[in-house]
Recover the amino acids of this structure.
């Protein structure tokens, strides 16, 4: 599925302008993911059989072209290259761009393969022109941009943030982050370990963090479920690490290749006892880089695990983005001890809640990282005074930290009466829905949350100030963000929830329709 426009694209389209069907196998399975209407064009080969009823019912215009015969007319021609020629013509790509793409993809196969591919693509272009099908697009601004996925951007953010050790177990849809870092870290320094299982991976990160190395582990929902015990250990022992969760449809194995935001609850509360932690969520593919970079900084500065919630839609989608800027937040871990020898206390009760964390081996600063409740020295203690003091200390770290303005962003008219609150991959469709509503006469703002926990109640209240209607848009069945914010008393009493699960992606028209339907219903009442 490809969408092309003159500006960067943040949401899946409500409908597709064109469907190029090389054959009709699996169409019943994928038809719900390809919304068509009477303005759409379906290009197919009549020899592939009758147009399926599910496609005919959309009313889309059908253009029949002899695709297989076009491929056969070229020595070494392939059907998929004819399809590529059709797509390139629809997108308005010129011949130099087409040739560059073909050479980049199959140049290693030799000049004969390149020539055959270009000829097959040209046959597709010519056939489309003769059929009178054209979809000219305006040219976008010419400027340096990148094409990458959210998973690639997370890897970039990890490198920029200073991650030096990564341990992960392969899991869809997160594995590309590990693969990207495995290549890049050879050049930039650091180590990537493919662990034997999810628990081993996060345990390795505990060891690396104890040794003074910035560390990250990468997973998806089922893997996160296995990591939660060690996540609690990292909170108790105050070991900094970034835990990336590229969310997918659950529960259990669920649908590994589809997006959902149902892991928010486990990210917030998935450990025994009171285990305060930071939860961040990038709001776009480009933001995956800067938010990951920020996550590393926060983990190191606060000596605590930071959960980074991406999702399949952000992680595996490829898009063109403006080059993300690096954050002015240098890696910082407090290492200089307040005292040495017998007076050294790894978990000293400081005003900020952050205590010195010297690297192992420094004379006079040996310490124990323990999951048991402990004293300031780190030695186990079951005394109430020690337990409460250390719990308050861990809470205080999050409460006193200067989060700045990175908690979120407001898009659209700041005084709009309608406010949509979203996180992760729902931000893009919410922004497009807000744009349409504003153009239609209902000014709408979008409040996109990057810092999910701890909630910045006062800043969120300011972002929502003056809104007569607040709607929380999220992709899970149980309104997890809505309930989380209600529990933190961070939403106005009139706030509403629009929550539905995956695997179908949120589309802007769906959000607009839901808001308009609710408004009509309220007016009638």
């Amino acid at each position: 599925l490809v969408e092309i426009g003159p500006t960067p694209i943040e949401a899946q389209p409500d409908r597709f302008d064109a469907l190029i069907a090389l054959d009709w196998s699996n169409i019943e399975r994928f038809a719900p993911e390809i919304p068509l209407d009477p303005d759409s064009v379906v290009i197919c080969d009549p020899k592939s059989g009758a147009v399926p009823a599910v496609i005919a019912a959309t009313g889309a215009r059908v253009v029949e072209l002899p695709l297989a015969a076009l491929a056969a007319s070229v020595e070494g021609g392939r059907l998929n290259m004819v399809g590529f020629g059709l797509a390139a013509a629809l997108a308005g790509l010129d011949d130099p761009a087409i040739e560059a793409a073909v050479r980049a993809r199959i140049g290693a196969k030799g000049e004969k393969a390149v020539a055959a591919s270009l000829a097959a693509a040209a046959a597709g272009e010519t056939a489309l022109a003769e059929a009178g099908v054209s979809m000219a697009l305006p040219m976008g601004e010419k400027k340096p941009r990148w094409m990458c996925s959210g998973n690639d951007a997370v890897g970039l953010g990890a490198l920029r943030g200073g991650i030096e050790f990564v341990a992960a177990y392969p899991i869809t849809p997160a594995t590309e982050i590990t693969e990207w870092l495995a290549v890049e870290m050879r050049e930039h320094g650091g180590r990537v370990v493919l662990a034997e299982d999810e628990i081993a991976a996060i345990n390795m990160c505990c060891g690396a963090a104890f040794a003074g190395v910035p560390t990250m582990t990468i997973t998806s929902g089922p893997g996160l479920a296995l990591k939660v015990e060690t996540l609690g250990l990292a909170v108790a022992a105050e070991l900094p690490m970034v835990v990336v969760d590229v969310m997918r449809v659950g529960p259990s194995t669920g649908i590994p290749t589809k997006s959902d935001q149902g892991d928010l609850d486990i990210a917030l509360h998935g450990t025994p006892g009171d285990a305060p932690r930071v939860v961040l969520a990038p709001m776009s593919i480009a933001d995956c880089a800067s938010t990951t970079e920020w996550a590393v900084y926060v983990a190191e500065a606060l000596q605590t695990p930071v959960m980074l919630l991406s999702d399949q839609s952000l992680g595996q989608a490829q898009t063109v983005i403006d080059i993300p800027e690096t954050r002015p937040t240098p890696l910082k871990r407090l290492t200089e001890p307040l005292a040495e020898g017998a007076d050294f206390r790894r978990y000293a009760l400081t005003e900020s809640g952050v205590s010195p964390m010297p690297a192992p081996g420094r004379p006079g600063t040996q310490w124990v990282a323990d999951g048991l409740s402990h004293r300031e020295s780190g030695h186990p203690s079951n005394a109430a005074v020690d337990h409460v003091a250390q719990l308050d200390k861990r809470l205080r770290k999050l409460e006193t930290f200067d989060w700045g303005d990175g908690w979120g962003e407001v898009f659209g008219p700041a005084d709009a009466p309608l406010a949509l609150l979203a996180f992760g991959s729902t931000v893009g469709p919410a922004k497009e829905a807000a744009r349409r509503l504003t153009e239609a006469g209902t000014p709408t703002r979008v409040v996109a949350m990057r810092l999910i926990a701890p909630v910045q109640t006062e800043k969120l209240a300011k972002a929502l100030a003056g809104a007569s209607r607040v709607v929380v848009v999220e992709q899970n069945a149980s309104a997890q963000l809505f309930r989380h914010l209600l529990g933190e008393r961070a939403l106005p009493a009139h706030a509403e929830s629009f929550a539905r699960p995956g695997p179908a992606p949120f589309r802007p028209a769906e959000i607009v329709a839901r808001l308009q339907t609710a408004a009509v219903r309220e007016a009638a009442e």
Q: What stands out?
A: The mean pLDDT is 93. The chain has four domains: 18-130, 147-322, 334-402, 408-524.
